[in-house]
Write a structure and sequence with these properties.
Length: about 250
């Protein structure tokens, strides 16, 4: 069955947007995944097609109405009954590669893109939405977050990336490390040489160097991920290349 994305938005013309290009666009044209952007305004019932109203309790901005959103959700869920219903919001759990892997392994996703001050809390609860944030930033709408989530999922679908990349070795792969740095020709550029081991043709040495670099980058740039990686290693009793299990880096 084709992985299906149904998007509820006030701006359906934003889709597929960048997802119509490159790997995701080709996969879309090949039918490896499906996309349907549904206009929330089409579910409004008054002649002005109103989708929002002022917040109870006062304050700035407008809030998206639960009745209109519920009707929109019903239509999307009827098309994809087994897919999780995700509301993109800065109040949600942070999107990460583990969640992306889970979503990509499922039947697809229904994404609700908010606008204004957000969505009436009651429809979030009544529909059992999963609240997901694209990062600790505030966007003007959920659409860029939906594009981000979909891009990350679609590249994991069977046949989309081909042999071009290994999802395991990438940053945030199964080991939870950042990826090692990459180099290509020329071997020397502006006085900067490629690390000699990469020119050695010695596959085991290259693998060892990449592993050490991945661990060092994770330790230096993302101590949170490094701690989690060390904990996982400790549970599986494996020694780390670049650090001791107490979280203090080994001498380089
Ligand atoms: C201007 S924002 C509303 C922000 C909200 N008043 C708050 O402070 O949490 C409008 C919409 O953009 C989307 N949005 C904004 N930031 C987001 C983020 N970091 N991740 C996912 N969606 C986001 C949500 O759908 C939200 O309803």
């Amino acid at each position: 069955m084709t992985w299906q994305a149904n998007i509820l938005t006030l701006f359906p013309e934003m889709f597929p947007g960048p997802l119509g290009l490159s790997l995701a666009g080709r996969a879309l044209r090949e039918g490896r995944w499906g996309l349907r952007a549904m206009d929330i305004r089409g579910f409004a019932t008054d002649r002005h097609r109103t989708v929002d109203d002022t917040p109870f309790g006062g304050g700035a901005g407008m809030v998206m109405r639960p009745d209109v959103l519920d009707a929109a959700c019903a239509a999307a869920v009827a098309e994809s009954p087994a897919a999780p219903l995700v509301y993109l919001t800065p109040r949600g759990r942070l999107l990460d590669q583990a969640l992306v892997r889970d979503l990509a392994a499922g039947p697809g996703v229904v994404l609700l893109c908010g606008r204004y001050e957000g969505v009436d809390q009651r429809v979030i609860e009544a529909r059992g939405m999963v609240e997901v944030s694209a990062g600790d930033v505030v966007l003007s709408g959920g659409e860029p977050a939906a594009l981000l989530l979909l891009d990350a999922c679609v590249r994991l679908l069977p046949g989309v990336m081909g042999a071009a990349a290994s999802a395991e070795e990438e940053s945030h792969g199964t080991e939870g490390l950042l990826e090692y740095p990459h180099y290509t020709r020329p071997a020397e550029w502006q006085g900067r040489a490629v690390p000699p081991v990469l020119l050695s043709g010695h596959h085991a040495e290259v693998a060892r160097w990449r592993r050490t670099e991945a661990e060092a980058a994770t330790r230096a740039r993302r101590p949170d991920l490094w701690d989690r990686h060390l904990r996982r290693r400790a549970e599986s009793h494996e020694p780390a290349e670049a650090g001791r299990l107490d979280g203090h880096p080994a001498a380089a």
